[in-house]
Amino acid sequence: MARVVAISNQKGGVGKTTTAVNLAASLALAEQRVLLVDVDPQGNASSGVGVSQRSIEQSLYPVLFREATIRDVARPTELPFLQVVAACRDLAGVEIELVDAEDRALRLREALAPVRDDYDFIFVDCPPSLGILTINALAAADVVLVPMQAEYYALEGLSDLVGTIDRVRSTLNPALSLDGVLLTMFDPRNNLSNQVAEEVRKHFHVFETVIPRNVRLAEAPSYGRPAILYDAGSRGSHGYLSLAREILDQRVVAPGSVVGA
């Protein structure tokens, strides 16, 4: 059964979508069956694997209204083991359109349940906000992976997210846990970065892999490709391949366990 991973941080600009796209692609390269679900109306994860807003015919939107299934809307990507459920701008209206639905926070969990045996990993790229779409992702997930830039304000954002996870756990998803914090755009020459990293490690499980600041990671989305297909030799690509190995090693060492619970 797939491990459902919500990639979330209420603070924007921390490498959340970059992580969703490149981690999904790296695991697909290792022949893991991966589904990337784009829950952000901006659709950046979709375009990052080659699905532009203009070419979207099927998206997550009708799934949340029970007018389509995940199997109906999942589409292939350049990587044989990676499929994507694309986002569209209509998702921005979901919060208002579902306001009277009692189960509005559980629509994504309900939609993913029938396809969990089809994949090894399902990654859900969340919007950088706490709304009904993010709540749906957290309610559907087994674990939360938190990309975090090593800067002071990121610590405050992490604290807010942990509070949100606790609230979702107490009301919608008792099994939800924090898988780990991923340090992104990291510069080891920066004293503040090292200080923030040290502080985070005191309180949370932090992945051993650190994603460096890398121009190729920033360039790849404009070509509609994950970094591993845009420039496999870049430091950014190597970083996400390393993270994929770390995650696979966790599953081998302790199948079914949840790190950081």
Can you summarize this structure?
The protein has helices spanning 16-29, 44-48, 61-64, 70-73, 94-97, 107-112, 132-140, 152-171, 191-203, 215-219, 227-230, 235-253; strands at 3-7, 34-38, 75-76, 82-85, 121-125, 143-149, 177-184. It has 261 residues and is α/β, with parallel strands linked by helices.
**Overall pLDDT score:** 91
Shape: globular
Low-confidence segments, ≥5 residues, pLDDT <50?
254-261
Spatial order of the strands in the main sheet?
A: 3-4-2-5-1-6-7
The rounded Rg comes to 17 Å
Determine the number of helices (DSSP H or I, runs of at least 4 residues).
Answer: 12
Strand proportion: 5-15%
Report the order of strands and helices.
EHEHHHEEHHEHEHEHHHH
Structural class, please? alpha/beta
CATH topology: Rossmann fold
**Oligomeric grouping of the chains:** single chain
The biggest sheet, with number of strands, parallel, antiparallel or mixed sense and barrel status, is: 7 strands, mixed
CATH class category? Alpha Beta
How much helicity do the residues have? Answer: 40-55%
